[in-house]
Amino acid sequence: MTKSLTGDVAIVGGSLAGLATGIGLARAGLPGNVFEQNAGEERGGTGLGVDRTLIAETTGVDARVDGLTPALPVVDEGDRETSTWLAIYRWLRAVADATDGLNVHESARVDAVSSDEHAAHLSGANVSASAAVVIGADGYRSA
Ligand SMILES: Cc1cc2nc3c(=O)[nH]c(=O)nc-3n(C[C@H](O)[C@H](O)[C@H](O)COP(=O)(O)OP(=O)(O)OC[C@H]3O[C@@H](n4cnc5c(N)ncnc54)[C@H](O)[C@@H]3O)c2cc1C
Q: Is the whole model's pTM more than 0.85, yes or no?
């Protein structure tokens, strides 16, 4: 099914960067859509150093306490905290799903982006959308 949308912000890529950006912007009053080519969870990493204060500042959601979702689990290594890629992804995805004004579309690969004087336009096999702003969060394997 082709999704026809008009949103203020379109984010290409629904992994760590795309979800965190979408959450922060939606909570700041800029609604948006995240387009992720994959469906469901796809492991994107292993273990990561994590700064929950920075995550809270970026997303507007405190990752240290139970709130919108349970707190993000971490291991305290003394000089830093670490977590797993999947735990971070699941926390961000759960927060994204609970965030008003943010919609995450899976199986939604963006193949082309163009613009005119009115908006940017995104298209792909399952995507037909327009937005005022497009953010690329499609990772280091960006197509
Ligand atoms: C130098 C380096 C060091 C790293 N070290 C670590 C580490 O220590 N631990 C660790 O766990 N990981 C590590 N990683 C990998 C880690 O998983 C990524 O850094 C992390 O996932 C990046 O998140 P991201 O959101 O920026 O990009 P990604 O996770 O790559 O996400 C990009 C998303 O965009 C989607 N996408 C791409 N193109 C399109 C399109 N056209 N339309 C729709 N969707 C699209 C992809 O499907 C993907 O979900 C490292 C990577 C690099 C480059």
A: yes
